[in-house]
What we know:
Distance between the termini: 55 Å
Number of strands: 0
Largest sheet: none
Order of helices and strands: HHH
Shape: globular
Radius of gyration: 16 Å
Mean pLDDT: 86
Strand content: under 5%
Amino acid sequence: xxxxxxxxxxxxxxxxxxxxxxxxxxxxxxxxxxxxxxxxxxxxxxxxxxxxxxxxxxxxxxxxxxxxxxxxxxxxxxxxxxxxxxxxxxxxxxxxxxxxx
Length: 101
């Protein structure tokens, strides 16, 4: 019984990180000049871009969170999000610039 409660408590920060990264990605897409409404965020091209931006950014945030947890920092979620989201976006953008001709 104790291990199931511990697993639920450990998954809560991961879900919070996933939700905030998802909203950050949608916020980035909403800034695009071609996005006129919320419905434009759910077009096929934007959903593919969402996956391309979300996965690396989410992984970076989770890795930063786990690293901060090992250091026993109190604000590890804030640290991982404030550092992970910009770093994730920059890595994806630089990757797209180097990959595309």
